[in-house]
Task: structure prediction
Amino acid sequence: MSNSHEELYKELLERLKEISIIGACEGLLGWDERTYMPRAGSKSRADQISYLAGMAHKKFTDPKIGEILSELEKSPLMNDPLSDSAVNIRETRYSYDKSVKIPQKLVEEISHTTTMAQGIWAEARKESNYPKFLPWLEKIIKLELDLAGCLGYKKEAYDALLDNYEPGATHESVGKVFEDFRKELVDLAAAIMNSKKRADISILEREYPVDRQAMFGQSGSAAIGFDFHAGRLDVTTHPFCSGIAPGDTRITTRYNPHHFGQAFFGILHESGHGIYDQGLDDAHHGTPRGNSVSLGIHESQSRMWENLVGRSKAFWKHFFPRAQQMFPEALSNVKFEDFYFAINDVRPSFIRVEADEVTYNLHILLRFEIEFAFLKGDLAVKDIPGAWNEKFKKYFGLMPKNDAEGCLQDVHWSAGYIGYFPTYTLGNLYSAQFFAKAKEEIKDLEHQYEIGKYDTLKTWLNKNIHTHGKRYRAENLVQVVTGKPLSHKPLMIYLKTKYGELYGV
Ligand code: CO
Result:
């Protein structure tokens, strides 16, 4: 090989950037599909997106990339493991190996089966008919086990799947933290449920005109630091954030004229994802060094702005008078304390996506335990509803009336997303641990919220998390930023302090 290492590295980056341009086009088509595309366009759009996805896959699995990586791995570019070049080579190798290990036939079978299964699942959920979904779930689990087999794993097949969403995480590493967390969380949830104090949530269910919600949401998003010169906010059915390319990050929401919080906190959540995407280093765009760490770290950014900042007393010291001005009919006679309690209402509910900050994690822990058990073969697929309900009763003190509000409620398993759920709780755990550190380093953070100043926290996140791209894996990033490994303690302390005060527990 006559090329110098520098030239080969340059070629690698060029190839990666080309692939990322295809990805950006795919992302834009996907955003359009979920916002403005006429419904009749869905067949053509599916063709366009799968064409681009196939092209990107073909380019990324080109054996030439494997050859370049093998050369570069022996080069001085790897000397400093945290250098830009070493990070890009390491992370490209990681994704490349995964991509080439999965046979095209299996990719197609999973894609075909899960597309069908999602339709069946939607019907089964509507009818609360688990037996209808059962054979499909069995088939998906078999395919996911095949996938895990192709990817390879040391201990558990589950690890290979979880690794797709949270690189480096294993059932054991996550399970240990979750187990410690669950013990304390179940007790806190039970204490809150037994408390006599109850928020009046009806004040959030008054009339909140959609046009004014849009203005108020946009002002909240801009205040916390989402850059509207490099992004936009649109309406969709299932809100998401799409970081398309530098200078173009798109967030979405949905409005309910009879609910204040759904859109507002949803906008803060998606803005948190957007602020992360906008904070990535443009100079490294298209390479791992300019990309986000994992789903869990991404979720930590959205949860931080939505909950730790957005549901705090200090935040509303600034925003509540503004909300009263914007929605005088609904809020002019409401006391600050009552509003603050209402937006932090905790009560057990069957549906995960409607859950509060405390019980939300119990929904995830339950799913994590169930999906691990059925993948391992310890839980027969036909016995999932029974196992679900039993755990639900144990954690929430309630029994789902039917499977639609039990094990059939989420789309994930029908889409083949096994090992995805833990990233939600990991996001909450990371967010609390990062936030505790930020508060330690920025002494008057809460006072800054009270006066509507959020750029100090945003700059802290830019510097400590966003700008590193994939330099660190999630596990290391937590250690580097906070000086400690991931622990349930910061989140537990936060929840106990906040809800202890609200519920007198
Ligand atoms: Co999110």
Observations:
- The chain has a mean pLDDT of 96.
- The CA atoms of residues 244 and 351 lie 31 Å apart.
- The pocket of cobalt (II) ion is lined by residues 269, 273, 299, 302 (CB under 6 Å).
- The longest strand covers residues 248-253.
